[in-house]
Design a protein that fits this description.
Elements lengths: L7 E4 L5 H12 L3 E6 L3 H13 L3 E6 L5 H19 L4 E6 L14 H23 L2 E10 L12 H21 L5 E7 L9 H8 L10 H12 L10 E4 L6
Parallel strand pairs: 1-2, 1-4, 2-3, 4-5, 5-6, 6-7
Helix pairs in contact: 1-2, 1-7, 3-4, 4-5
Bound molecules: nicotinamide-adenine-dinucleotide (NAD).
Nicotinamide-adenine-dinucleotide binds next to helix 1.
């Protein structure tokens, strides 16, 4: 399938986990993919190689997205890379996937930890989108990776839950703001998903709460994100889709 032929996608946090699967899927279906990484340049280069070997186009782009100065320079690099790889600037799909989820109760959370969680999970997608708005073409797609933790009680993820609730709020506001350009803005809330982020200690407990009877894979979640990025999802905006196999229904 070549659903994304001619489209350009930026996926943050794409060197592993859910972001990696999203980047691979978009690349395999024809998109030119900017594979964003924080520190693991080698892993991002491997994903670029996989996409290129399969006949797609991709390049790696590094930044600590919790720092607005690095987000700004990431977009400068993106502009230059896109001139090289596609002959023009501009984006069609932005996936804000990078995130952190330290396991902390309210008593345990320091101000520094709170600020870091909000810098990565809220400030980063906010300023990524701010930079993307002037570059994204009409009928584009913005997808924010949220979490079910924003809509189900998680006492040991309280700052994380609050940060993902903020993502849901910004998704709604931006869907209204950008709708007149045909740009859709949606959020995907993964349930328990088998990546480095999921603590071993809660896997069995969460599995017992999933209607489909298992923990999700990164590819299960990527399927939903890629659907939202497609033209078929053009009539969905401002929505929060639970990608959870029916967790805690
Ligand atoms: P992961 O830890 O494998 O991936 C997180 C990615 O974010 C990594 O690539 C990491 O490099 C990147 N990242 C973290 N801090 C960064 C920074 N400062 N700058 C740039 N990149 C940074 O975990 P994952 O499960 O693949 O998580 C992807 C998204 O899914 C996250 O937003 C997470 O909150 C969300 N999520 C995951 C689960 C789950 O069970 N795995 C559940 C709900 C939501």
């Amino acid at each position: 399938m070549n659903r994304f032929k001619g489209k350009v996608a930026l996926v943050t946090g794409a060197s592993r986990g859910i972001g990696k699967e999203i980047a691979l899927r978009l690349g395999s279906e024809g998109a030119t993919v900017a594979v964003h990484f924080n520190r693991n340049e080698a892993a991002a280069a491997e994903i670029v190689r996989e996409i290129s070997t399969a006949g797609g186009k991709a390049f790696a782009i590094g930044a600590d997205v919790s720092k607005t100065s690095e987000v700004a320079s990431m977009f400068d690099t993106l502009d230059r890379e896109l001139e090289v790889h596609t002959g023009r600037r501009g984006l069609d799909i932005v996936v804000n996937n990078a995130g952190i989820s330290p396991v902390l109760t309210i008593e345990e959370t320091t101000e520094g930890q709170f600020d870091e969680i909000f810098a990565v999970n809220v400030k980063a997608p906010f300023f990524v989108i701010q930079h993307a708005v002037g570059r994204i073409r009409d009928d584009g797609r913005i997808i924010n990776v949220s979490s079910m933790s924003a809509v189900r009680a998680r006492p040991t993820l309280v700052a994380y839950a609050a940060s993902k609730a903020a993502v849901n709020g910004m998704t709604l506001a931006l869907a209204q703001h950008l709708g007149n350009r045909g740009i859709t803005v949606n959020a995907v809330a993964p349930g328990a998903t088998d990546t480095d982020m999921l603590p071993d200690s809660i896997r069995e407990m969460l599995k017992s709460r999933v209607a489909l009877g298992r923990i999700g894979t990164a590819s299960d979640v990527a399927n939903i994100v890629v659907f939202l990025a497609s033209q078929d999802a053009g009539w969905l905006t401002g929505q929060l889709l639970h990608a959870s196999g029916g967790q805690e229904l």
